[in-house]
Amino acid sequence: MNKKVTFSDIAKYTNVSKMTVSRYFNDPGSLTPETKGKIEKALKELNYKSNKVAKILANGRSEFIGIIIPELFFDYYSQVLNEILTTYNDFNYKFLVFAGNHDQELEKKYIEELLAYQVEGLIILSYTLPSEVLKEYNIPIVTIEREDQYVTSINTNNYLGAQLAAEHLIQDQCDILININSFVRENVPAYDRIRGFEDTCRQNQIPCKIIQKNFKNDYDVTYELLDSVYQHLESEYSNKRKGVFLSNDNYANIFLNILIKNKKQIPEEYEIIGFDNTISKESIIPITTVAQNIQKIARSAVEELKEQIESKDSEKKSEIRHVIIDPQLIIRGTTGKNSYTAE
Amino acid sequence: MNKKVTFSDIAKYTNVSKMTVSRYFNDPGSLTPETKGKIEKALKELNYKSNKVAKILANGRSEFIGIIIPELFFDYYSQVLNEILTTYNDFNYKFLVFAGNHDQELEKKYIEELLAYQVEGLIILSYTLPSEVLKEYNIPIVTIEREDQYVTSINTNNYLGAQLAAEHLIQDQCDILININSFVRENVPAYDRIRGFEDTCRQNQIPCKIIQKNFKNDYDVTYELLDSVYQHLESEYSNKRKGVFLSNDNYANIFLNILIKNKKQIPEEYEIIGFDNTISKESIIPITTVAQNIQKIARSAVEELKEQIESKDSEKKSEIRHVIIDPQLIIRGTTGKNSYTAE
DNA sequence: TTGTACGCGTTATCAT
DNA sequence: ATGATAACGCGTACAA
């Protein structure tokens, strides 16, 4: 390892100034082929390795973007992070990633740390800090699928997703439509899954029931809660065709398992639709689900951030924007009267 | 945002030198309470924000660790990444993360980029670059669950995992033990799942069959391949009690679904054991599985890296180490004659 | 096309 | 306990 080779070393070796070496990288067109060749040779022979930290200090552009996710045990976050990381190939931003673990104080600390490293922007998937607080950091920010009143955001068109689900269940002639959800606040995007579902039922004059439970991030708790929901539905709507829309694939999968164990006919007695298109395909009956366009969400997030970062330079203050990405209904075996087979 | 507040600004404001301001952060014990107070006040009043990029350039310690994962669609990688990120709270390393997407050239490029940002070490989960190549970068490196001959690594005790699985199936009086695997090379840790399985069968004089298929990262392909395996097992071992050990939970789940659809009795006719403890719990029958101790794997990786980083300073060259973490068998509904119920 | 001088914000070193 | 000065490695601005 010894000492690092710098522009000065290359400059001495080639009898040019270090500015010329710098230009070799940043403005090669301005060099004669000769000097270019000399420098190229020297770089190889001295085994030069660039130091971007010095570059940041000199020109102020870190090309860092900070990401704060709640965690990676939930497939949705993993997939979004995966797609964000992949944008490196097109946008060249480097990503410093923190897992907030649902802890507000921790997340504040993480943001301070990210700012210290001169990140040019933040992508926030965690939800503990209100957007009003986020905006105060005065740095380009994009949030994804969370409360977003005061900041630019990318969200799925949850309303449309719920609408597609409800319409599909109605078309399949379900007698009663049920939405199973956790207690989401009205100001988060996911609440539109309830609004869209209710509105669609009302417009089609189909009975509709919203069931909200205090789901934890725990399989057994979720199982118990959904089992009680099942009992309730059985007693309440015994001889009706039930169309059930759950707020994510994990819930949908567990609910499906409960139905199967109780020997229910699917999709004859129950139709099921999940959300997120994560594990739904791997269920005992592949589950119809609303798929978010995660790649588009991720790319849009980086694009919006890039725009903010660049408009910051040119003094045009960019307005807050809320980008909405349409989801897609993926029809599988838990809906459609003739589809009780695997794909 | 205006101009950034620096140590110089604080120094002028308080009539001390910027060195004293620096000491306020790095060696506060050496300051008098008075100056400490003055500086503290100035930091608040001028709203100072630290710049760690300048700090890196000055002292050479970035506190960055680079991570290269193949992708995040596979739960195992997500969980490992999650646990690595969480070590920030104890070790204070910041993580620059790249998704290699199984592309060797891309990964080389990513490593160069990471080196340019002065990362102090690398954690490699991707497998495209041989450890012989990795070692040549001459920087602290730890690999996780991949070929590791020339570098320090953290791996699960795959041999033990397979042994636990085989012993459990034998104890449950299976007549024939089957291991379903992809074509893994003999020099990757996962190959020990085959070795451990075979050895245990041999020692117990139980018939054993290793089936390797060319699994892709695709549900439908995997389904077809496992369906053909099922057909094969049915014709070959029709009235024997079959104990099947699959190399991950996804395969185990799909195989289980195939058995259920064919109305096989589980665990009477087939016993199933998966690996990784990811989706096994959410299957129609919760699947017995070998759980890797992911938290320990992640922490060990960071600890080993830290040791390498620190011993690098003190000129003691640290030896290559291969740390082995024991997994644990989690018994659920797909094994054990009396356990055909959910947990 | 190439060079000079200086600055980026911090720490290291040697003084006092 | 505090300060002066020189790094760290690169880019900007202006000059030649």
From TrEMBL, chains A, B:
It comes from the Bacteria. GO terms for molecular function: DNA-binding transcription factor activity; transcription cis-regulatory region binding. InterPro entries: HTH_LacI (IPR000843), LacI/GalR-like_sensor (IPR046335), Lambda_DNA-bd_dom_sf (IPR010982), Peripla_BP_I (IPR028082). Residues 295-322 form a coiled coil. SUPFAM superfamilies: lambda repressor-like DNA-binding domains, Periplasmic binding protein-like I. SMART domains: HTH_LACI (SM00354). It holds the Pfam family Peripla_BP_3. Keywords: Coiled coil, DNA-binding, Repressor, Transcription, Transcription regulation. The keyword Endoplasmic reticulum does not apply. Residues 5-59 form the HTH lacI-type domain. PANTHER family: LACI-RELATED TRANSCRIPTIONAL REPRESSOR, RIBOSE OPERON REPRESSOR. This is LacI family transcriptional regulator.
